[in-house]
Amino acid sequence: MCALSMAGLEVDVWALNATNTIRTGSIIDLSSNYSSIIHVSVALGTADTTAHNGSRIIIQASSAASGNDNWTNIQDFVTLAGTLQLETITNNPLNVGGTTITMASTTGFEAGAANKPSILCFLKDTVDITKSELVVVTAYSLNTSVTLLEGVTNSHTNTAVLNNIAATFAIALPLGTLRARVIYDNTYTTAGCGLYSRTHIVQVSALGSLRYNTTTIVNNLTLDNTHTFILANAASNTITVSLPSAATFKNLYFLKKTDTSANVVTISPNGTDTIDGQSNYLLELQGEFVAIISNGVSTWEVMAE
């Protein structure tokens, strides 16, 4: 198999949709990619005491290299329902890497309890909106400060605003997608909040020629660089397919269960590695398959299933 290259690209920077407006994201050329994952981040942004009933996000793919008549909705969903809490931070400044945000009121940011261990929030930079970021609040000191899971990426002044309704989504695009884009529709709620949005894409492309290696197995197997396609026949027994280290083997694997039995094919990461955050991946029915690729650190990303 050829070497694969994986790179991230910011497609749409943080920007505001006012209420009752639609933002059409940039068109992404995917013609040179084997596979792609879109990461969409959204947050409510402008104050409104009325509960926001949600904003609509549409992920579209096209099978044509140009034109506007081949767009197909891959995902279409509504998110960000709730009543927004906003609080201006008092750090002056909040430096890069900082994990404590000071604020006059912590109402709406009370994370750390068993029923609310963390809150995904939007830290809006009022000096440069493109420097805004998502943060995870894990604890608070009443009307004094909140604690973040990880340090902030950018520095922020004491005019930055913390918002408590945000979300992020990762969507794998179908193989064969030539173009993609995101539609941020803030007309779903006629009265409500403004919508902030941003999109990144992870692109997987190949370096050099591609060689397909297909291996049929009936017993356990540990994968390495000689493997590409794995056809698992578990008719006689369960099978465990062990993955190599995600940090060492930056590979793309395709795995499929071919038999009709109830025996499970378990895909097991190495050590503390995960598959999309999970400790393993199961193929339970005939014809089930998964395509996974290493992120080069400690995770195998699911590209298709």
Overview of the molecule:
The structure is a single chain. The protein is mostly beta strands. It folds into three domains: 3-82 and 167-207, Jelly Rolls; 86-163; 214-304, Sandwich (Jelly Rolls), CATH 2.60.120.640. It is built from no helices and 25 strands. It starts with a strand and ends with a strand. The mean pLDDT is 91.
What attributes does this structure have?
305 residues; mainly beta; Jelly Rolls; 6-stranded antiparallel β-sheet; 6-stranded mixed β-sheet; 0% helix
> What share of the residues does DSSP label as strand, in percent?
over 45%
Shape: globular
Radius of gyration from the alpha-carbon trace, in angstroms: 22 Å
Biggest β-sheet description: 6 strands, antiparallel
Q: Which CATH architecture of the largest domain is right?
A: Sandwich
User: What is the tally of helical segments?
Assistant: 0
* CATH class term of the largest domain: Mainly Beta
The overall number of domains is 3
Helix proportion of residues, in percent?
under 10%
How does the SSE layout of this entry go?
Layout: E1 3-17, E2 22-24, E3 28-29, E4 35-44, E5 55-62, E6 71-79, E7 86-88, E8 100-102, E9 119-124, E10 133-141, E11 145-148, E12 161-163, E13 166-172, E14 179-185, E15 195-207, E16 214-217, E17 221-222, E18 229-232, E19 239-242, E20 252-257, E21 265-268, E22 274-275, E23 281-283, E24 289-294, E25 299-304
Parallel strand pairs: 16-18, 17-19, 18-20, 19-21, 22-25
Antiparallel strand pairs: 1-15, 2-14, 3-14, 4-13, 4-15, 5-6, 5-14, 7-12, 8-11, 9-10, 9-12, 10-11, 20-24, 21-23, 24-25
